Amino acid sequence: FTGRGRIDEEMLEELEATFLQADMGVKVTARLIDCVREFHKSEKGLGREGLIERLEGEVASVLGSNSASLNVSCSPPTVILVVGVNGTGKTTTIAKLAKMLQDEGKKVLLAACDTFRAAAIDQLSILAEQAGVSIVRHKHGADAAAVAYDAVEAALARGMDYLIVDTAGRLHTKVNLMEEVKKVQRVIAKKIPGAPHEVLLVLDATTGQNALQQAKMFHEALGLTGIVMAKLDGTAKGGILLAIKQELDIPIKFVGVGEGLDDLEPFVPSDFAGALFE
Amino acid sequence: SLSGRLQSVFRKIAGYGRLSESNIAEAVREVRLALLEADVNYKVVKDFIEKVKEQAIGQETLRGVLPGQQLIKIVHEELVNLMGVSARELDLSSSPAVIMLVGLQGSGKTTTAAKLARRIKKKGRQPLLVPCDTKRAAALEQLVSLGRQLGEAVYEPGSDRDAVSIAARSVVFAEDHSLDTVILDTAGRLHIDEELMEELRAMKSRLSPREILLVADAMTGQDAVNIASAFDKALDITGAILTKLDGDTRGGAALSIKAVTGKPIKLVGIGEKIDDLELFHPDRMASRILG
Ligand SMILES: Nc1nc2c(ncn2[C@@H]2O[C@H](COP(=O)(O)OP(=O)(O)OP(=O)(O)O)[C@@H](O)[C@H]2O)c(=O)[nH]1
Ligand SMILES: Nc1nc2c(ncn2[C@@H]2O[C@H](COP(=O)(O)OP(=O)(O)OP(=O)(O)O)[C@@H](O)[C@H]2O)c(=O)[nH]1
Ligand SMILES: [Mg+2]
Ligand SMILES: [Mg+2]
Q1: Can you say how many angstroms the Cα of residue A95 is from the centroid of all Cα atoms in its chain?
Q2: What single-letter DSSP state applies at residue B104?
Q3: How far is CA B112 from CA A114, B207, B217, B268, B273, in A?
Q4: Dist. CA A193–CA A173, nearest whole Å
Q5: Does B134 touch chain A (CB under 8 A)?
Q6: Cα angle A75, A81, A87; round to 5
Q7: CB contact at 8 A, B279 and B103
Q8: Contacts with B244 from chain A: Cβ below 8 Å
Q9: Pairing of strands A134-136, A252-256
Q10: Which has the closest alpha carbon to B67: B12, B137, B149?
C-alpha cells in the first residue's frame, strides 16, 4: 500500500493470517481478501490504517448493524429456551440472563431441564439462588419435557415475566438427543402458542469451524432466534460468527465475558470487529 | 473430499509427464485448505506443508508422476509421524501415582476424571478422585455423583477451600488408605489468568504429579496453540486428553497441540458415559483430520 498501484502482497498475507487465526475460516477469509483488493482498487491512496478501518466496517455490517435484543412476548411469560453442545456455558449464561432481567425488575423463573448430567440440577439451583430467582426442578433422571411442562404451568400461575429453560448439553450429531430437545420445544409450544419466544444457541468462543455445523443443525431442528457466544474473555476471537451470520442470518445477541453473574454483555458488532484486528 | 479435489488437480496436469514444482504447489494448496478447514492452526499448517512439499518433490523426481493418492499417503504418514506413531499409556509409576487434570472451562475435566478412575480400576488399581474445584457451583456434587456411579468414594475436602492444600491432603489420605492412584480434578481456568495458572504451578511443585494432562475440547479452533503452549510452558505437561470426539469436528486441534508442545495425546473422550474413554490412535486421527 505504498500508492504504487500494486497491492502489497506481504500485507495481504499478514491479513490472511489474522483472519484465519481468528477462526473466520477459509471461505470468509477469501471473501475478506477480495474486499481488500476491491478497497485498494477504489481508493488508491489507502494506507494500512484506512484499510483496517474499512475492514472493521465490513465485518460489523456482516454481523448486524445494531445490537439485537431479546424477543419479548406480548403476553407474559416470555419463554427462553437455551441449547447447545456440551460445556459451552449454557447454565452459566442462563444465570447471567436471570440476574440481568431480575435487576431490571422482572420476575424470572428457571426450569432445570438438564435432568441427565451429574449435579446439573444442583448447579442451576445454586446459581438461581445467587441470582435471586426461583427454579422449577424435578429429580435427576426425570423427563426433561415433563419438567418443561411443569415450569410453564408455574410461570403462568405465578405471573412470571420470563421463564428460562436450561437443557442438557448435546452434540448435534446425536439424533435421539436432538429429538429430545425438539420434544421440549413442542411441549412448551403446546402450553403457550408461540412459545418459546426465544431459542438461544450458546457457543464456546474457543470452538473452531464446527460451530457453524452446530448452528446449522440446531437451527434446522429448532429454529434459532439468537446466539450467545460465551468465553470471549479468553484469547479466542470467535471469528466463526461471520460465517454463521452470513449463512444462517441468526442475530447474535449476547457475549459471555467471564464466570461471574454480571459477565454478560449485549453483542456490539463494531466492538467485536475492533477486537478482531487487535 | 480432499482425495476428490486432488484427483481433479492432477487430472488437469496429467499427461504432462514430469510434474513441476508449481504443479505440486497447486495440489499442496488443496491440502493446506483441507487442514485449515479442519481447524489445524495456521502456523502449524505452514510448517507442515513445507515438510510435505520436501517429501513430495523428492518423490516426484524419482518417479516422474505423483498421483493424488500418493500425495495423500505422504500427508497421512506425515500427520501420523507428527502426532506420535503409537499410543502412549499413562505413567503410574509412583505410589501413589498422582494424575493432575488441567484445562479450560467446560473442556470435560470432571467427566474425564471419573472415566480415568474407571479405566484405572479395570487395571486392578485403587483410584482416589479428588475435587480440587472449590469455585464452580456444585462441582463437588458433580464428582461425588460420578463417584457413586463408579462405586468409588471421592475424597472429602471438608472445610478446606484451597485447591493446593486439598490436593496435598488427599495424597496423605491415599497413602493412609492404601489407594495407589490419585486423580486431581481442578477448576477450569483461562491460560491467561496469571493467578490461577500460578495455583497450578504451586500444586505441581507441592505434589510432583506423574502425569499432568491437558484436557482439551476436540472442537477447539485456532486458539488450541495458545492454550496448549501456555499450559505447557507453565507446567511442562506430560500429555493431553482430547474430549468430545464423538461429535463431527475434524479435530485439527490434535495436530496443533502436539506440534506446539511436543507432548503426546494419550487418550480421547468419545461420549458422556464413564466408559467413553479410549487410547488415542494417531492413524485414525490423521484420517479424520484429512476428512
Ligand atoms: N471464562 C469464562 N468461563 C465461562 C463463561 N461462561 C461459562 N463459563 C464457564 O464454563 C464452564 C461450563 O459452563 P456451564 O454453564 O456449566 O456450561 P454448560 O453449557 O451448561 O455445560 P453442560 O450443561 O455440561 O453442557 C463453567 O466453568 C463456567 O464457569 C464465560 O463467558 N467466560
Ligand atoms: N459428548 C461428550 N461430552 C463430553 C465428553 N467429555 C465431557 N463431556 C461433557 O462435556 C460437559 C462438560 O464436562 P465437565 O466434565 O463438566 O467439564 P469441566 O472441564 O470439568 O468443566 P469446568 O469444571 O467447568 O471447567 C458435560 O456435559 C460432559 O458430560 C465427551 O467425550 N463427549
Ligand atoms: Mg449446563
Ligand atoms: Mg469440572
Answers
A1: 15
A2: S
A3: 19, 20, 11, 9, 10
A4: 29
A5: no
A6: 155
A7: no
A8: 85-87, 171
A9: unpaired
A10: B12
The kind and range of the H/E element at B216 are: strand B211-217
* CB proximity list for B195: less than 8 A, separation 6 or greater: none
Bridge partners of A227? A201, A252
B192 touches chain A (CB under 8 A): yes
Is residue B285 within 8 A of residue B35, CB to CB? The reply is no
Neighbours of ion ligand 4 (CB under 5 A): B 109-110
Q: Which of B38, B221, B246 lies at the smallest CB-CB distance from A207? A: B221
DSSP assignment, residue A132? T
Residues lining ligand 1, CB < 6 A?
A 84, 86-92, 114, 117, 120, 168-169, 230-231, 233, 256-259, 263; B 105-106, 136, 188, 190
- Count CB pairs under 8 A between chains A and B: 134
Q: Rounded distance, CA A94 to CA A166, Å? A: 7
Kindly report, residue by residue over A139-185, the tens digit of the pLDDT. 999 999 999 999 999 999 999 999 999 999 999 999 999 999 999 99
Backbone Cα Rg of chain A: 21
Q: How far is CA A134 from CA A124, A165, A169, B267, in A?
A: 10, 12, 22, 41
Q: Which residues of A touch B273 (CB under 8 A)?
A: none
* CA dihedral for B28, B33, B34, B38, sign (positive or negative): positive
The reply to whether ligand 2 has any atom less than 6 angstroms from the CB of B276 is: yes
| Total residue count of chain B as it appears in this document | 291
Closest ligand 1 atom to A114 CA: 23
Full pLDDT tens readout for chain B, 291 residues: 887 888 777 776 654 445 567 768 888 999 999 999 999 999 999 999 999 988 887 665 555 555 677 788 889 999 999 998 666 789 898 889 999 999 999 999 999 999 999 999 999 999 999 999 999 999 999 999 999 999 988 999 999 999 999 999 999 999 999 999 999 999 999 999 999 999 999 999 999 999 999 999 999 999 999 999 999 999 999 999 999 999 999 999 999 999 999 999 999 999 999 999 999 999 999 999 998
Residue whose C-alpha cell reads 505447557 in the numeric block: B232
Region for B64 from its dihedrals, namely left if φ exceeds 0, alpha if ψ lies in -120 to 50, beta otherwise: left
- The answer to whether residues B137 and B105 touch, using CB atoms and an 8 Å cutoff, is no
d(CA A142, CA A134): 19
First to last CA, chain A: 20
CA angle A115, A70, A81 (to 5 degrees): 15
Amino acid at A91: T
